[in-house]
Amino acid sequence: LQLITERAASELAKRLVDGVPRRYQSVEEKGSVLRGKLRLAAYARQGAHEAHILPIRHAPLMSDNDLTRVVKALAMYLWNCSSGHATRRSLATVLDRLGSVRSLPLTVGLVEEPRLSRYESGWTGLLDLARLLARGRSPDPAQPGREGYLSVMFPLEHLFERILRRVL
Question: For residue 50, what is the DSSP state?
Answer without folding.
Answer: G
